[in-house]
Design goal:
Helix 4 crosses helix 5. With 172 residues, the chain is an alpha+beta fold. Helices cover 36% and strands 20% of the residues. Strand 1 and strand 2 form a beta hairpin.
Length: 172
């Protein structure tokens, strides 16, 4: 059994405000532990897009995520004239930012390319092209020619087959 003095000392610890204050003190103590880092021990940022994602070499037909490395690199190479917004080699997704051709100041394009399979096949690639034109100071969505999408898809497939041939592998 506890004495009256022990109960008097322990009773305040059961109050919610006291528990909350002790919790904040514990968090503050933990936060103070990591503040003394030496900046020279931090690693420098790396460009993974060029270092890992373009790695269709040494007979590697497949990237770590399960997409075809030649299709991936063929798409990156083909779309390199446009600014890249995002590129995910594991998921096989390439999204460009808006590109405005120098010859046309009133239209711009954006492309999404998806590598869907491990095999180098035409149905393992899906390309979507988005087009906008400038009307009355506002960008408005307009349809693209069907040949635009198929031309870009063909160029990506051609580049992927070139990469595979350069690597000494035959096309299936």
């Amino acid at each position: 059994m506890m004495s009256r003095i022990q109960l008097t000392v322990l009773r305040p610890l059961h109050r919610p405000t006291t528990r909350l204050a002790l919790g904040f003190l514990a968090l503050g103590a933990l936060a103070a532990c990591g503040s003394g880092r030496d900046p020279s021990t931090l690693t420098a940022p790396r460009n993974h897009l060029l270092g890992v994602d373009r790695g269709a070499e040494g007979g590697a037909d497949e990237l770590r995520g399960g997409v075809n490395a030649y299709l991936w690199r063929g798409a990156i190479d083909t779309l390199s004239f446009m600014p890249l917004a995002s590129a995910d080699a594991v998921g096989g997704v390439i999204l460009t930012d808006w590109y405005q051709p120098s010859a046309s100041q009133n239209e711009r394009f954006k492309i999404a390319a998806y590598v869907l399979d491990r095999r180098l096949r035409s149905d393992a690639l899906r390309v979507s092209v988005f087009r906008q034109i400038l009307q009355d100071g506002q960008w408005e969505d307009t349809p693209v020619s069907a040949t635009t999408t198929s031309d870009i898809t063909t160029r990506i497939l051609t580049r992927a087959r070139q990469l595979r041939a350069e690597n000494g592998e035959r096309d299936n």
